[in-house]
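Our preliminary data section would be incomplete without showing what the modeling component actually yields. Below, a chain of 344 amino acids is followed by its predicted structure, encoded as tokens that our downstream tools consume directly.
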Amino acid sequence: MVRNIVLTGLAIALLTGCSSKKEENQNTETEAIPVKVMKLEKRNIAKTLDYTATLQADEQVYYAPVSAGRIGKIYVEVGDRIKKGQLLVEMDPTNYQQAKVQLKNLETEYNRAVKLNETGSISKQAYDAAVTNYEVAKSNYDFLKENTKMLAPFDGIVTGKYFENGELYTGIATGGAAKPSIIAIEKINPLKAYVNLSEQYFLAVKKGTKVEFKCNIYPERIFEGTVNIVYPTIDPASRTFTVEVKIPNNDEALRPGMYGTINFFIGETETVVVPALAVLKLQGANNRYVFLNKDGKAKRVEVTLGRRFEDQVEIISHEIQEGDELVVVGQGKLVDGKIIDVKR
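Predicted structure:
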């Protein structure tokens, strides 16, 4: 009898404990999570295309005379800045001086022939010979002058030097030069880049389209530029077309070979932009999601990220509409369907 009474008491105690735990769990499940929300509104943002590219010099010249010869003097070193018309290299002037003397003699004969021809005191054959000899000598002189005193064709910088004073230029690429040359010079303001864009943007990108260049070396800077050339054909294999972009480089902060991202601005579009902290990431995956307030309960919605604007980010989802309430505080404690207490 005593044993039965004890067992009955234990059973009642167990039932009472289970009932208490069940009520406690029910209270926990129905307890509202305090959150703050914001009403979603569409706003106009620039529509862009993002492509990676490598910068190139606007002009690059492997500078050398037309024919082989002994180098008289090289007036520049690697890294020197040069101005258009500046003397860079002087070859052995022997042939040039000979051509100069010959031209002077033939010029005298030419002037005499011109005067005699005006009075009819010279045969046509002799006159024509004097003119021809002078023109040939003048052409040879101009050619040697250009290839003896080599002047800078543009403002730029010396990027390579492959010979020393007194050495014989042979017309063969040596010393690491990509082409036969004595020196290499580049124009680095502006710089340019070539980008292959998908054919679907052929009508959207035109000459003058604004672009921005960003690179890791200058994470806080944005370099503005424009599309300079839109190539008129589509590559049938890749279904892309090529554009040339020019980036002004007045302070020469950028250099050929730098790698970065070029953003093409092709108009405006309406989209939803939210605080980046409101977007959550699924642990162990790359899925992104947010929580909306739907009739006092949290609704989990998968989203795709678009452009980032400092602490704001564009979100894309067919389930999100303008006017929806997005949870921006307290979202880390939520699960789908959880009751929420919106703090206004």
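DSSP finds three helices and 20 strands in the chain. The first helix runs from residue 2 to 30. Preliminary results of this kind motivate Aim 1 of the renewal.
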